[in-house]
Amino acid sequence: MKIIKKLALGLGVAAAAQMTQAADSGFDLATVNPEADRVALQNYFESRFPQSEISDYVNGIYAVDASSREQWEELEEFPPYEFAVEEGETLFNTPFANGKGYADCFENGGVGIRQNYPYWNKEAGTVKTLEMEINECREANGEKPLKWAKGDIAKISAYMAWTSRDKPINIEIPSDDPRAKAAYLDGKKFFYAKRGQLNLSCANCHVQGANIRIRADLPSPQLGHTSHFPVFRSKWGELGTLHRRYKGCHKDSRSKPLSHQVEVYRNLEFFQSYMNNGLVVNGPGARK
Amino acid sequence: MKKIITIAAVLALAPTFASAESFQEAFESNRAMYGKNHTFEWNGKNFSTNHEEEVEAAVAATKENALDLIAKAKAKNKEAAKLGFEWKLTGGILKDAQKAADAGEYRKALDLAAQAKYHSRMGIQQHAYAQSNWHLSVPQ
Amino acid sequence: MRKLTTSICAAGLLAMVTAAPAVAGAKEDQLALGKAVYLNKSRGNCVSCHAISDPDATQAGNQGPPILSMKMRFPDKRKLRAQIWDATKNNPLTIMPPLGKHWILSEEEIDAVVEYVYQF
């Protein structure tokens, strides 16, 4: 009997120990700790690529792969997105039919604010992205919303990023609204869960598989991922938004991709951008 | 105290060693090694390595059977989509199955519908697995 | 029409079992299929992660180990087949897609790619 009691106690202790372990890891709403996640991710890449500066991760694969960096630096000397930024500025400053403009919808007239996006909007109870608010601004002023993937919306977003260059990314997860943390957790979960016929998580390529060749391509490290969007991709031959890239990546796992600005994509952007806190905005960027 | 924990751990592990592999494990390892149309023994009985969808497709190649399996596959794929785990090619396979059925190629339609239904089931299974295992790859 | 196909198939089978050169031909066909599966992006796309000393396998990736000493690494060919069928069984986090379990390749294509890589 005594032995049984002892065994039962042992089992109880073992179970308790397991629970403590789970509590430490931040995989549920009670324990998720964005700041600990951010530090852990930085530490992970620091030990993977000790030669690279953390601040350089905004440059994607070129932060860790010296051989492709030179080519990219040459490309950035005459940036392919330059014309699009100019067009974006013109679009941004062209008044709507009612005489108002984008500057009236955003803080600080829309200049130098990219680093605060996406953010948790308590009233709406959802994550708001910059592109989302560009279209909301249009609709509030009686204009038709723009198409999400490319074109004018990407150009306007590019101009707004351009005016925010070198500002430190500053994503806040307000502690007075548990739904904000839940959105972060949802994005984190999306990033690390395997999906699609190819059974790939974002992390498979952009954490474990970062800077390891898939055919001739090198996947970029997840740290720094969103800083340079919208992006001029040589493969597209034009500027595109972050969610256009998300859809493409999602499809590469042989999943049926979701729609632009769907909740889980915005939560993913929220999670990824939080990981970049302290790094600087460098959009728009140029990539392969 | 340490000893007790060790004993507890051994006790906790013991049933895993004692019980034979689950049917699912036995099925998968046999399908993995031998492919389809192979017979294996599990708990004293014989089983085939064919997927349940392949068994469903092994019926008379009639219009009725083809349309029935296509409908089942479509419903399954909808379930996967609801979870956000619909696969990229499933919709196209279902369209091809329908085209084959329209053209009177009922065998082809049945086989394609079986594949689409299987893909949907795997997507649903993948979602369930992700719910409890997504955290395994998070850097600590 | 179906009868005709069946009889052609039967004739083919008969030829395969009776004539040795035809058997060799079938083996060659299987290896060619395996190679196509290995290299083709919309089929196995194995080359995207595994280098192999086949002169046609250019621009191989290195996410996975190179394909060499296969007979030594997998004395039991069925274990190799199982690894290709579902690599997550041994490592749930692997980047390698479960080519059989997720019906990315048909069982015939898996048999073929096993035979192809087993030469290296």
Automatic annotation (TrEMBL), chain A:
Heme c 2 binds at residues 202, 205-206, 249. It catalyses: L-cysteinyl-[SoxY protein] + thiosulfate + 2 Fe(III)-[cytochrome c] = S-sulfosulfanyl-L-cysteinyl-[SoxY protein] + 2 Fe(II)-[cytochrome c] + 2 H(+); S-sulfanyl-L-cysteinyl-[SoxY protein] + thiosulfate + 2 Fe(III)-[cytochrome c] = S-(2-sulfodisulfanyl)-L-cysteinyl-[SoxY protein] + 2 Fe(II)-[cytochrome c] + 2 H(+). Its main location: periplasm. Its EC number is 2.8.5.2. Binds 2 heme groups per subunit. Residues 1-22 form the signal peptide. Coiled coil: none annotated. GO terms for molecular function: electron transfer activity; heme binding; metal ion binding; oxidoreductase activity, acting on a sulfur group of donors, cytochrome as acceptor; transferase activity. Keywords: Electron transport, Heme, Iron, Metal-binding, Periplasm, Signal, Transferase, Transport. Belongs to the SoxA family. Heterodimer of SoxA and SoxX. This is SoxAX cytochrome complex subunit A. It comes from Pontibacterium sinense.
UniProtKB/TrEMBL annotation, chain B:
Keywords: Signal. Residues 1-20 form the signal peptide. This is Uncharacterized protein. It comes from Pontibacterium sinense.
UniProtKB/TrEMBL annotation, chain C:
The lineage of its organism: Bacteria, Pseudomonadati, Pseudomonadota, Gammaproteobacteria, Oceanospirillales. Keywords: Heme, Iron, Metal-binding, Signal. InterPro entries: Cyt_c-like_dom, Cyt_c-like_dom_sf, Thiosulf_SoxX. The keyword Iron applies. It comes from the Bacteria. Transmembrane segments: none annotated. It holds the Pfam family Cytochrome_CBB3. This is Sulfur oxidation c-type cytochrome SoxX. Residues 1-24 form the signal peptide. GO terms for molecular function: electron transfer activity; heme binding; metal ion binding. Residues 29-120 form the Cytochrome c domain. The keyword Repressor does not apply.
